[in-house]
From TrEMBL:
Source species of the chain: Novosphingobium chloroacetimidivorans
Principal location listed in the UniProt entry: membrane
Classification of source organism: Bacteria, Pseudomonadati, Pseudomonadota, Alphaproteobacteria, Sphingomonadales
Name listed for the protein in its UniProt record: Exosortase
Leader sequence residues: none
GO molecular function: peptidase activity
Localization in the cell: Cell membrane
């Protein structure tokens, strides 16, 4: 019995040393947090001023706040595990992030500046909790990536294609119902009125925002069923397209029955909230229909 005592004391000492070593991260990697903060403040201020104030980016603050809450919620139960490789990988990563920031300032590419902020957040987490723990946070980290607006050379051609798709769907649906509608590209005609499908009505930024919010909903409710959650996440793209088409149909009908002033007034400004409600309602309906078939059906096998 006495021979076991030194071993017990040694184990207790090792545990105590490991526990005391955890707070030393703030001493060893304080520059990571400082660098992330320095790069984040001007980038987020410019994002709020130039993008979040527009209709296309109105969902940005919601995605950022819910993403940070989700990241904190998922990381609260993780234990800090210092990775020795972080000693040289984190400084190297900060050099890359710094290059992104410099190039973004020279070329006026806001998405590149925000990408640097995003990468600095990942490095901050890596230095804090280690590589393995970082992988367990991949969904919240992926969700936060939706805060970054895509580059214009990707958005512009996709927006044109989406506007054509949404306009064709809206005119086709109203034509089947007997309304006097026609279109010429993105110019829509209903009765004696003419409307233009703007980028806000079917743009790529709107699709990304709705997809991000759908991903947040799916992860919270179905994280225990990852295959089913992945299916619902993929379905958010056609759901977002459907919501935008419903918005265009609603604006056409408002203009047809209420005149041009009604179609371009407060109801037009409230259409952003309208497509969010349509997308969320459609996702809930799909979830109610598919969950009994895919989740409960699998469980009964």
């Amino acid at each position: 019995m006495q021979a076991l005592a030194p071993d017990l004391v040694e184990v207790d000492t090792c545990v105590s040393d490991t526990y005391r070593a955890e707070p030393r991260w703030w001493v060893r990697h304080w520059y990571v947090a400082l660098s992330a903060l320095i790069m984040a403040i001007p980038g987020l201020a410019a994002l709020a001023r130039n993008y979040w104030s527009t209709e296309q980016g109105a969902a940005g603050p919601i995605i950022l706040l819910t993403g940070l809450w989700l990241l904190h919620h998922e990381a609260s139960g993780l234990r800090t595990q210092f990775d020795r490789a972080a000693g040289w990988l984190v400084p190297l990563g900060l050099v890359v992030v710094g290059l992104c920031t410099v190039i973004a300032a020279v070329t006026a590419k806001q998405w590149l500046q925000l990408l640097g902020i995003y990468l600095s957040l990942i490095m901050l987490l890596y230095a804090m909790i280690g590589w393995r723990q970082l992988l367990s946070l991949r969904i919240p980290i992926l969700y936060l990536a939706f805060v970054i607006p895509p580059p214009d050379n990707l958005v512009v051609p996709l927006t044109h294609a989406l506007k054509d798709l949404v306009a064709g769907g809206a005119v086709g649906a109203l034509g089947m119902l007997g309304y006097p509608v026609a279109r010429d590209g993105v110019l829509l005609y209903i009765g004696q009125y003419e409307l233009v499908v703007a980028a806000a009505c079917s743009g790529m930024n709107s699709i990304l925002s709705l997809t991000a919010i759908g991903l947040f909903y799916v992860y919270l409710l179905h994280r225990a069923h990852m295959r089913y959650a992945a299916l619902l996440a993929l379905l958010m793209v056609p759901v977002a397209l459907f919501a935008n088409a419903v918005r265009v149909i609603a604006l056409l009908l408002i203009t047809y029955y209420g005149g041009e002033a009604a179609g371009q007034g407060i109801l037009h400004d409230a259409a952003g909230l309208f497509i969010f409600l349509v997308a969320l309602g459609t996702l809930l309906a799909l979830d109610r229909m598919l969950a009994p078939l895919l989740i409960r059906g699998r469980a009964s096998r």
